[in-house]
Amino acid sequence: MKATIIQFLKSFPEIVLVSALLFPFLAHGAADRAWPIITFTCDKAKNEVKLKNEVKWGKAGENYPFSAEQGTYNPWSLVSIEERGKRSLISEKKQLTLKCMLGKIEYTFIVKPKIFNTNFNGKCGDRLSVKVSVYKGASTLIEDKPMETFCHGNAPVLRGIKVKAGNSKVKIYEVPRSRFY
Question: Which are the contacts of 145, defined by CB distance < 8 A and separation ≥ 6?
Answer without folding.
Answer: 131, 132, 133, 134, 158, 161, 172
